[in-house]
Structures are given as structure tokens and as C-alpha cells.
Amino acid sequence: AFHDSADRRDPPKCHPNTRVAILEKLMGWVHGLDPESLDTLIIWLNGPAGSGKSAIAQTIAELCTEEGTLLAGFFFFRSDPTRNHSRSLIATIAYQIATHFPNFRERMTAIIETDPHIFNRSLTKQMTSLIIEPFLAHGAFDVPNSRYLIIIDGLDECEDREGQLDILHTISSLFQQSPLPLIFLIASRPEYDITNVFGAGHLQQITSRLALDDGYQAWADIRLFLRDQFADIKQSHPLKAHIGHDWPGEEVLNQVVKKSSGQFIYAATVAKFVKSTRHRPQNRLEIVLGLHPARSLRDMPFAELDELYHHIFRSVLNLDGVLRVLSWHMLRDLNFYDRLSPWPISEVEDILLFDKGEIHLLFCDLHSIVDIRKSETRRDKTEVLHIFHSSLEDFLLDKSRSKNLYIDGPARYAEFSRTILQYLPSQYAN
Q1: Which site among 169, 203, 280, 379 is 20 to 30 Å from 416 CA-CA?
Q2: b/e for 289-315, b at 16 or more Cβ within 10 A?
Q3: Are 279 and 240 in contact (CB under 8 A)?
Q4: Dihedral over Cα of 147, 150, 151, 152: its sign
Q5: Taking a C-beta distance cutoff of 8 angstroms, is the pair 155, 76 a contact?
Q6: How many whole angstroms separate alpha carbon 182 and alpha carbon 64?
Q7: Are 159 and 195 in contact, with CB atoms under 8 Å apart?
Q8: pTM for the full model?
Q9: What is the pLDDT of residues 163-199, one digit of tens each?
Q10: Topology (CATH) of 20-216
């Protein structure tokens, strides 16, 4: 669970010369040099699935380790049974702190000997006994103006939703109980419950939100990353002698960058697939671009991305309703608008016979891949559905990848054509 744990083989981190602005902002906060976040005790780094949150958290952890300001870190991961729950969080953090401060370690050991069942108690009790009390008893923070960072990455990958919220409330109680010079970097997708907790009460007062949006030049960084990856292939691949100097060309590079939709996981998945030393890079890239069919399941380029989408959709309560709305959104030629102007959410609810406000509820657990926002292209600025990543549409329209999530385009088209014919007369009647 540590940033340098053996359990995290080859953890993601920022490619050289990418994410520069956001890394500088975070390090400025750690050093107390950012005027906008001087009083901020928690930064919530949030962004859509695959936007590079874990890579940023890992890079910050490594930078702060070098200068001695990282106190502890915990990196959740849904597929690791030791890292997909909250039960070991406080113990892991306390252990890392104990390696920094001998006095802290002595006090913590005494507490464990007095109460051997401490690790079975509530997170708040563990935090108080294993972290707050040892610090207050031995004054571990005697260095004036010192600030120590604790990183919690992938909070949304803690499988128990109540556990996610318990972690946030426990951190909030820490700052309410004592003036310890700790700061927290918490990274997660903008899940519904997590967003609500950060937006209320004491946490709202001590937290700054840092969203990975277009303001941080993800497109430019992805272009640089892919350019470097393709250059590396031409220099080091066993078949480099058979790769043209100008491969893959600007047009193809632009195509892959556009397809990424600002999604680093897409770009990284493409690079990993194309770099395979057991295949011709040119053929692998053609598979990615859909110009060449995959020969087997082993040749499916987006297996990792597909698993991420399947994981996210497992949280949906009304899957049929969600897929129906997504189908409507994706089959835009039914909308009588151009592709940049999807139908307003309120009208989609009328057409598809949903109650008012129901689409908001349907998508409340999908904020990491879909957003409901005010239209940037419609004059009335009504709310519309926005899909963050174009790769989601490719996934849903490919039965071999999406399986039970598959959207049958022709069947949905026929269904919605009938729906439109039933809806329009009622509009003219009014």
C-alpha cells in the first residue's frame, strides 16, 4: 500500500515534462508557498476515470520522499484484497509514521500492548490512539513551521462505500481534535457520495478541490507522451530496422491523441499494446485504429480499459435505464440537432418516459465517465449529457468488449424511431 511497496510493481507516474503545472501547484501547497492554498489542510485531486490521478499522486509521493516531507501514503486498488478496504488504512499510516519518529514508535507500541484489539476498533478510535495521542505525548513535530504530507490515492477503489465516507469523516475529526501539522492529498474519481461529503460541514472548510480538467493541458501532455513512446519503439524494438523513420506520422498521432479525449489510460494502453516485442508495431497500431482485426483475445488492445468500464458500471442500480439514455445520446442523428448539440435532459426524460430529475439519479454513480452539465452550444444553456471519453462509445458498441453492456445500434435506432413518432404528435397537440 506504500508508494514504493513491492505490491505495486511498476506503479504509474508522470511521464517526464508532463503535468508540470499541476505538479508545481501541489508542491507549492506542500511547501506552503501557494497563496491560494495556505490554509488548505486537504487537497482533493479529482478527475474522470483514467485521467492520471494515480500517476500524479505517485509522482508527488516520490518528490516528497526525496525531500523528507512525505509522512505516509496509502494507495487503494480494487483488485488487491489487501488494498480494497479501509481496515488496514490507519495501521499502515501509523507504521510509516513510526519509521520516521522513534518516540512515536515507542508510544504506539505501548498502546498496542495495552489494547491488542485496537485494529478492530473504529477508524476514528484507531486514528486517535495510534496517531494523535502518540504525537501529542512525545511532540514529534518539534520543527517550527513543518508540514508533513499523507497521501491517500484511489479512495473510490475502497469497495465499501460506507468505508470511503468513514475515512473522510475520520480525517475531518483528526483536524478537529488537534492542531497537528499534517496535510492530506486525497485522489479519487468524483463519485456521488464522495463529492457530497467534501461539499459539506467541516471538510468543506478545510478542503480545496483540484479537478483534472482541460485547464491542465492533458491533450498536449498526451501528445508528448505518445510522441516519446513511438520514438522509443523506433529506437529499441527488435524490429526497429523495419520501421520507417517517419512512422507513425502526424496524422495518425493526431488521431490517437483525439481518441484519448484527455484520458491518459487510453494513451498508456495504446503505447503498451504497440510496444510488444513479440509483434510488429505497425500491425499493432493498425489494430488500435481499427484498420486490422485482432486475431485472438490476446490481441485485444483495450482489455485494461474495458475492465475499468465494467468495474464502473457495476455500481449502477438501474442498468437498463442508464444504457437506454446512453443509447439515445449516442444515436445523435435522431436528435434533429448537429452532433455538438444533444437533446436537453429535460426533453429526453419526456421522450423516454422518465420522471423529472430521474436521469440525474440514474447517473449519480457514473460521474467519472459521464457528466450532466449546461450546454456550451445551445443558446438556452439547458442541461445535457456529456460523455468524457469517446472510447466509452467504442466500448459500448462493440459486443465482444462490452458483453452485457452492449448497445445494439440498429435495434435501438428502430426503438427510438418509434418513440419519436409517438412523441412528436403530442408536442404539436400542445
Answers
A1: 379
A2: eeeeeeeeeebbbbeebbebbeebbee
A3: no
A4: negative
A5: yes
A6: 14
A7: no
A8: 0.88
A9: 999 999 999 999 998 878 899 999 999 999 999 999 9
A10: Rossmann fold (3.40.50)
